[in-house]
Design goal:
The complex is a heterodimer of chains A (111) and B (117).
Chain A: E1 3-7, E2 10-13, E3 19-26, E4 32-38, E5 44-52, E6 55-58, E7 65-70, E8 73-78, E9 87-94, E10 101-102, E11 106-110
Parallel strand pairs in A: 2-11
Antiparallel strand pairs in A: 1-3, 3-8, 4-5, 4-9, 5-6, 7-8, 9-10, 9-11
Chain B: E1 4-6, E2 10-14, E3 19-25, E4 32-38, E5 45-51, E6 56-58, E7 62-67, E8 72-77, E9 86-93, E10 106-107, E11 111-116
Parallel strand pairs in B: 2-11
Antiparallel strand pairs in B: 1-3, 3-8, 4-5, 4-9, 6-7, 7-8, 9-10, 9-11
The chains are: A mainly beta (111), B mainly beta (117).
């Protein structure tokens, strides 16, 4: 079965510091990968998606970037965090029309 | 832009009752709808989905109804249990025939379901 690993589960970072969140998947190949963000008490917003290695599409302008160096690895990064980057970051995958499957997320607090 | 929203932000029910969670969408071109359950501190968990060529789909204890005329989606949970307590999100997408981007979803704000024993 498909498994999504995200780490760390929680993270507290100061404003202006860099960020790297990693997502790796198991049990599938050539998935579409997604980064979503969820603000407190809100729905999810799509940030990036990738249909293959090195292929990244950004959905909203922001202070973040994404990379996919390997088929089953998706990384979310920032050079300098802002307070507004705080939130719950969720990696997700789908393949061949399957429903979107989410990982358990990383809760980021920027202080 | 187009959005998906919920009529009720909170819903409290007694164990054993049926629950109905409603969702309105505004993009008439949407053709794929999905419900998720999210427990505290966890990622959303898939419940059930439906394509626009259907108006009803049933799963285990859950039923999704789609009314394209009024752009309304609902999730019915039969015999609600305390373990059903969570936030429920509807989401939509325009996939098209033979589409593959099922994951580019627009989410509603969520409904908090509380089940009292």
């Amino acid at each position: 079965s498909q498994t999504i690993h995200q780490w760390p589960a929680t993270l507290v970072q100061p404003v202006g510091s860099p960020l790297s969140l990693e997502c790796t998947v198991e049990g599938t190949s050539n998935p579409n990968l997604y980064w979503y963000r969820q603000a407190a008490g809100r729905g999810l917003q799509l940030l990036f998606y990738s249909v293959g290695i090195g292929q990244i599409s950004s959905e909203v302008p922001q202070n973040l970037s994404a990379s996919r160096p390997q088929d089953r690895q998706f990384i979310l990064s920032s050079k300098k965090l802002l307070l507004s980057d705080s939130g719950f970051y969720l990696c997700a995958l789908d393949r061949d029309g399957s429903p979107l499957h989410f990982g358990n997320g990383t809760r980021l607090t920027v202080t | 832009g187009e959005n998906v929203g919920l009529h009720l932000p909170t819903l409290s029910v007694q164990e054993g009752d049926n629950s109905i969670i409603n969702c309105a969408y505004s993009n008439s071109a949407s053709d794929y709808f999905i419900w998720y359950k999210q427990e505290s501190g966890k990622g959303p968990q898939f419940i059930i989905d439906i394509r626009s060529n259907m108006d009803k789909r049933q799963g285990q204890r859950v039923t999704v109804l789609l009314n394209k005329t009024v752009k309304h989606l609902s999730l019915q949970i039969a015999a609600t249990q305390p373990g059903d307590s969570a936030v429920y999100f509807c989401a939509e997408n325009r996939v098209g025939a033979g589409g593959t981007s099922y994951g580019k979803l627009t989410f509603g704000q969520g409904t908090i379901l509380t089940v009292h024993p």
